[in-house]
Amino acid sequence: MTLRNPLLDPDPANNRMGVTTLLDISSPLLSPPNVEGLVSISSALRYDVPARALRLDRPRAERIEMRGLSRSDAERLQQIGAVVAQELLRDQALHTFAVEDLTVGNKVYEIGDITVQQDGVKVQLK
Q: For 100, how many CA atoms within 13 A lie in the half-sphere containing its CB?
């Protein structure tokens, strides 16, 4: 599986960040064995204080569209994509901060609320 050309898709109304990317899959289990498509995944974001990590929270596959698949293969791929998003991506770290990243002068900040906005992500420092 290869992902390429990712585009961020903020969803401020639901405080979720999405990404849509082109997808290439090669598998002898598919017919045809090489297919191209599009996948969109969204997730809330949360900060894990002990690990100092920004993590995915409740990720889900919003859309999976594959060209050239039979209807049954496309449906199977949708089901697999939903499981992958929910089970394998849940709690994945997007970024882990070093103490130095959160330090200005003698003050070490903690990350507070994380809010998805249309033009980016707002992070509260406390």
A: 0
**Residue 113, both tokens:** 């609320």
* Positions of E strands within 1-126: 2-11, 16-26, 34-48, 53-67, 93-96, 103-104, 107-108, 111-117, 120-125
Residue 77 DSSP label: H
Comparing CA positions, the residue from 49, 60, 55 lying closest to residue 14 is 60
Those residues whose C-beta lies under 8 Å from the C-beta of residue 85, and which sit 6 or more positions away, are 41, 59, 60, 61
- pTM for this predicted structure: 0.82
Q: Where are the alpha helices (DSSP H) in 4-108?
A: 71-83
The answer to whether the beta carbons of residues 59 and 89 sit under 8 Å apart is yes
Contact 53, 96 (CB under 8 A): yes
pLDDT of 24-51, one tens digit each?
Answer: 888 887 777 888 899 999 999 999 999 9
Structure tokens at 27: 């598998």
SS3 68: coil
Structure tokens at 33: 């064995």
